[in-house]
UniProtKB/TrEMBL annotation:
GO cellular component, one term: Golgi membrane
Domain of life, per lineage: Eukaryota
Coiled-coil stretches noted in the UniProt entry, renumbered to this chain: none
Major localization listed first in the record, in broad terms: Golgi
Upper taxonomic lineage: Eukaryota, Metazoa, Chordata, Craniata, Vertebrata
A Pfam family hit: Glyco_transf_29
Pathways per UniProt: Protein modification; protein glycosylation
Keyword entries, A-Z: Disulfide bond, Glycoprotein, Glycosyltransferase, Golgi apparatus, Membrane, Signal-anchor, Transferase, Transmembrane, Transmembrane helix
Protein name stated in the entry: alpha-N-acetylgalactosaminide alpha-2,6-sialyltransferase
Enzyme class, UniProt record, top EC level: transferase
Reactions catalysed: a 3-O-[N-acetyl-alpha-D-galactosaminyl]-L-threonyl-[protein] + CMP-N-acetyl-beta-neuraminate = a 3-O-[N-acetyl-alpha-neuraminosyl-(2->6)-N-acetyl-alpha-D-galactosaminyl]-L-threonyl-[protein] + CMP + H(+); a 3-O-[N-acetyl-alpha-neuraminyl-(2->3)-beta-D-galactosyl-(1->3)-N-acetyl-alpha-D-galactosaminyl]-L-threonyl-[protein] + CMP-N-acetyl-beta-neuraminate = a 3-O-{alpha-Neu5Ac-(2->3)-beta-D-Gal-(1->3)-[alpha-Neu5Ac-(2->6)]-alpha-D-GalNAc}-L-threonyl-[protein] + CMP + H(+); a beta-D-galactosyl-(1->3)-N-acetyl-alpha-D-galactosaminyl derivative + CMP-N-acetyl-beta-neuraminate = a beta-D-galactosyl-(1->3)-[N-acetyl-alpha-neuraminyl-(2->6)]-N-acetyl-alpha-D-galactosaminyl derivative + CMP + H(+)
Species whose genome carries this gene: Perca fluviatilis (European perch)
Length: 211
């Protein structure tokens, strides 16, 4: 999901992406925010499946343009051509949209944040990573999670590909990352998922470690 950088990290994350989960915001903004880390395009392995998380009207505008093969006519992505963002691998038969009932189910059953009672409740939602994990749990026999927040998250950068970055993890208001972190630990401790957690080696580089 988001900026899935694999080059240089194949030993940890593999070198093939089978499913890419995104919103209109993440597929467009990732190209801007993560270019400096070597991210140049969304994953586009042959036969890849794309899954969209519709979080607002801008996503439905994106879907309309994508499915009709037309420029977007309204919203923040007006005049953009959505199909050009899939590096030639967009195929309607391999494109999926998560149902709103599933999104509400995950939010209300597993990740119901107290922030939903705050004045900014309208922007509060589980992260793309959270939806990805629960989608995997509902479709796969086994789930291994890499790159998610763990108990010692303050020791590391936000993303695994941010080498030598000491900046603290930024917790934005729209996602309850602490709630999600606790959920991943609970699922791991219950042996429902295998959560890989990072530790620093003697050379100072960060390697994944399974607990």
């Amino acid at each position: 999901m988001n900026a899935a950088i694999t080059k240089g990290y194949e030993e940890d994350v593999g070198n093939r992406t089978s499913v890419y989960i995104h919103t209109a915001h993440s597929i467009t903004s990732a190209l801007y925010f993560f270019k400096k880390f070597g991210y140049t395009t969304v994953p586009h392995d042959e036969g890849i499946k794309y899954v969209m998380v519709p979080e607002g009207m801008r996503d439905f505008n994106w879907l309309k343009g994508l499915l009709k093969g037309e420029r977007i006519t309204a919203g923040p992505y007006k005049n953009k051509r959505p199909w050009t963002y899939y590096a030639g691998q967009y195929n309607e038969t391999r494109f999926y949209v998560l149902h709103q009932d599933f999104l509400r189910y995950i939010r209300n059953r597993f990740l119901k944040s107290p922030n939903l009672n705050a004045s900014y409740w309208a922007i509060v939602r589980p992260s793309n990573g959270a939806f990805t994990l629960f989608l995997a749990l509902h479709t796969c026999d086994t789930v291994n999670a890499y790159g998610f927040m763990t108990e010692d998250y303050k020791k590391y950068s936000t993303y695994y590909f941010e080498k030598n970055i000491k900046a603290p993890v930024i917790l934005y208001a729209n996602h309850d990352y602490i709630l999600e972190k606790n959920m991943w630990k609970k699922l791991h401790d219950s042996k429902i998922i295998k959560l890989y957690q990072r530790t620093e080696s003697e050379t100072g580089t960060k390697k994944p470690k399974q607990h």
